[in-house]
Write a structure and sequence with these properties.
six-stranded antiparallel β-sheet, 23 strands, 41% helix, 28 helices, 15% strand, alpha+beta
């Protein structure tokens, strides 16, 4: 197992780079450490443990270091600048956390003392490692820092789908991929913000059907231009009251529009006219300068009539205009008895063509039928007993409580209602004004980030505060479902039930039976197993033409279905290492040489060949740990160390030639194993490869695509003998799987570490390692059940508590 670094790197990191080794049996070590940690936890407080650690160092650890490490790390000779003799007593030793963290790492990797040096007994090594592990419990309990977290891409997609049941699109289309790591990429770039804006438009446009448009303006309410000048005849007070307008000269009225959808609209103008000459009054109807139609006003001023025209209008903003286009003045005339006319005298007035417009209406196409999703959103509708704003308030109070994963406060509701008010005053129909308010909700930090869902409850105790019910509901749902809480979690939060650890455990058991728990497989198991690029991974198609896209998909599904079966059926975690069944379809079964499986459907298949079974020997894992043209014992060994045993070797030194650089004439007769061993003979490379390569050799019976073979890529006979840290020797994958399964505590702690980091959304630090120890011990005691692991994480201190703000 990895004994994690305690603190950050320091000058003593040089020790971790030394070439020392020890032969500590890791399984024995871990069992002893787990027992030691459990007993120390029960003994008393931090001060008592601190005194015990000081005494233990003085009377036990220091003599062991002098005996077994003093030859290389003393005042006269301190290799890699590490001098144990300079640490004077247990009190000083407790201040060297970085040093002991690096010592623990070298112990776990079996690199101290040097391989050819005299070796301490297993019990002596276990005492040193156990003392180092005990230092973790000298710090007070601390839930760690839970920073602001943006919803990851898949979390955003799942949340939108659960927030809008019935939505069928992909709201995350075009979103950049999130970084894979212990934490999350929390940045919100302008590009991502723009894509989220587009996504919210697409979601709401699909869900919400526009209302039937019915807009009415009195002429006095509209802006007017007469004879090229703005009409000042009506003040703001008159506009508010409404009324008619009379045009005796060329002019127009303007009505601002914001149409929810394109369609055929009816424009209705109520008007009367004073005629002059033979031509009737003519009004032109236009939209942003484009002619829509023309109306001849024949009714008299004192008896106005409504005139209509229909036109196809586009969705969106615009300006509707009603223009008086033919003003005229006719001189007055007299008709004599003889029928001759002459100009009128001064007592007669000329005839002026004029129009009086009372109102303008716009009537839209029939409203589409509301979807079930819209009816669920629109919990209120304006009517005789409820005005538009009151209906909008009821809608946003219900929606924001779900979108924010907690009840919204009064200021938040008022802020969102301001968006509705602005849209309403600009002439938007009710459904569109509500849509804009909902869009503002989807673009708010309260939705996009997990901010205040971790509100505290009660007074701080020991520097911690319990996460409230709403926060626990969100932590559980995003841990297991990568989505928002469901109604049952919301109800449990509202009723205060999530303050009880037993109730939280019951929710976990319920949630992992739900189909939404498949998100844990997609978002945790895929990166854990390193399968993110399996469908696009480059391999040599000339050498491996059988690896078709369909076969790749089956390969990808096999280990993930195994993880899901272990989770849902509450089976032992050790079945992930070795079991007598797997999941295959006909194509993958034939690829493995297994008969009796027909059809493209993946299904559970009992195995008779012990080479198969467990994630390590699946084709997907074997392929992602190869190069495009050949297998890689280095990659495969590193994968086993990191993903199964939690032992991360240091990065390779710079400027080290790749194995392919050894393609020389002198090496043409060498097998891949011989070439790898020659590469490892370089002292610069030996430190890392001495641990990784012997593990990877055990998987050389599988080619790049995961098929069993007798000869390697160079044509040499496969030699699958290998060795795990602790000199645990094996021959082939069957024995390798058996040895790793025998190190169940190491594997359980590794999986616990990775899953706890995933659940918290951050890298583990400090007191988290104590939490990992306790969870791993509980899981091991309960037979390695997946259910126990998930519930222990969900009821752990960093999951249920936070630091006070």
């Amino acid at each position: 197992m990895v004994l994690p670094h305690i603190g950050s790197r320091s000058g003593s990191l040089a020790l971790a780079r030394s070439g020392a080794r020890c032969a500590l049996p890791a399984a024995c070590l871990v069992v002893l450490l787990a027992c030691a940690a459990t007993s120390r936890a029960a003994e008393g407080g931090i001060e008592a443990r601190r005194v015990a650690a000081i005494s233990s160092y003085d009377h036990d650890i220091a003599p062991l270091l002098t005996t077994w490490c003093g030859e290389c790390h003393r005042a006269e000779k301190h290799k890699d600048d590490v001098d144990f003799s300079a640490i004077h007593g247990g009190t000083a030793a407790l201040g060297e956390r970085d040093l002991w963290g690096n010592v623990a790492t070298k112990l776990a990797l079996q690199e101290m003392p040097p391989e050819k040096a005299k070796q301490p007994s297993d019990d002596e090594r276990a005492r040193i490692a156990g003392w180092i592990t005990s230092l973790r419990r000298l710090d007070p309990p601390d839930p760690g820092v839970m920073g602001v977290r943006r919803l990851a891409r898949q979390e955003y997609v799942n949340t939108i789908r659960d927030l809008f049941p019935g939505y069928s699109g992909d709201p995350g289309q075009g979103f950049p991929s999130d970084q894979i790591g212990a934490g999350f990429n929390n940045s919100l770039s302008p590009l991502l913000m723009e894509k989220m804006l587009v996504a919210s438009d697409g979601v709401l446009d699909q869900i919400i059907a526009s209302d039937h448009v019915e807009m009415h303006w009195s002429a006095a309410q509209l802006d007017a231009v007469v004879d090229g000048k703005e009409d000042a005849a009506k003040g703001d007070a008159d506009k508010a009251k409404g009324g008619a307008r009379t045009f005796a000269a060329a002019g127009h009225l303007t009505a601002p529009l914001s149409l929810p959808e394109a369609g055929t609209y009816t424009i209705r103008v109520r008007a009367g006219a004073d005629q002059a000459g033979k031509e009737p009054v003519r009004l032109m109807i236009g939209l942003d300068g484009a002619l829509l139609g023309e109306i001849a006003v024949l009714a008299r001023t004192k008896m106005p009539v409504a005139y209509t025209c229909k036109a196809k209008l586009p969705a969106g903003p615009g300006h509707l205009t009603v223009t008086f286009i033919n003003p005229a003045t006719e001189p007055a005339t007299l008709t004599t008895a003889s029928g001759k006319s002459k100009p009128g005298d001064a007592q007669l007035r000329p005839q002026v063509r004029a129009v009086t417009i009372e109102s303008v209406d716009l009537i839209g196409p029939p409203a589409a039928k509301q979807s079930d999703a819209q009816r669920r959103l629109f919990v209120a509708q304006p009517g005789k007993d409820l005005d538009k704003r009151a209906a909008a308030r009821r809608i946003i109070e219900a929606f924001a409580a779900r979108a924010f994963r907690r009840p919204a406060d009064a200021d938040e509701i008022d802020g969102l209602l301001k968006v509705f008010d602005l849209a309403d005053t600009q002439g938007e129909v009710f459904s569109e004004a509500v849509k804009l308010m909902l869009k503002a909700t989807l673009l708010s930090p309260q939705f996009l980030f997990r901010l205040a869902e971790d509100g505290g409850q009660g007074a701080p105790v020991d520097g911690m505060v319990a996460v409230d019910g709403w926060g626990m509901a969100s932590r559980l749902s995003y841990f297991l479902w990568s989505s928002m809480p469901d109604d049952e979690l919301f109800a449990a939060a509202r009723d205060g039930k999530l303050a009880d650890a037993a109730a939280v455990a019951a929710q976990v058991r319920r949630m992992i039976k739900d189909p939404k728990a498949h998100a844990l497989i997609d978002n945790f198991a895929v990166p854990w197993l390193g399968l993110g690029n399996i469908l696009t991974l480059t391999i040599d198609q000339k050498r491996f033409p059988q690896v078709t896209p369909a076969l790749r998909q089956a390969m990808a599904d096999e280990p993930l279905m195994l993880v899901e079966a272990v989770m849902r059926e509450d089976r032992s975690l050790l079945e992930l290492l070795d079991c007598r069944y797997t999941f295959l379809n006909q194509a993958l079964a034939e690829h493995y040489g297994i008969s009796g499986v027909s059809g493209p459907q993946m299904r559970k298949v009992e195995l008779s060949d012990p080479l198969r079974g467990g994630v390590m020997t699946t084709a997907a894992v074997l392929m992602v740990t190869s190069t495009p043209t050949r297998t890689s014992p280095v990659k495969r060994g590193k994968w086993v160390l990191e993903q199964l045993l939690g032992q991360a070797p240091p990065p390779p030194p710079a400027n080290v030639a790749a194995l392919e650089a050894q393609d020389t004439a002198a090496n043409t007769a060498l097998t891949l194993r011989q070439r790898t061993e020659r590469h490892r003979a370089d002292p610069v490379c030996a430190g890392c490869h001495r641990t990784m390569d012997p593990i990877g050799f055990g998987l050389e019976v599988f080619d790049v695509s995961g098929r069993v073979r007798d000869h390697d890529d160079t044509g040499g006979v496969v030699d699958a003998r290998g060795e795990l840290p602790g000199r645990a020797r094996f021959s082939g994958p069957v024995e390798l799987k058996r040895i790793i399964a025998g190190r169940s505590v190491e594997f359980t702690r590794t999986l616990t570490t990775k899953l706890l980091a995933y659940a918290l959304g951050r890298a583990l630090t400090g007191y988290d390692q104590v939490v990992v120890d306790d969870i791993a011990a509980a899981v091991t005691k309960d037979g390695g059940k997946f259910d126990t692991l998930l519930t222990a994480i969900a009821t752990s201190l960093p999951f249920r508590y936070r630091r006070p703000r």
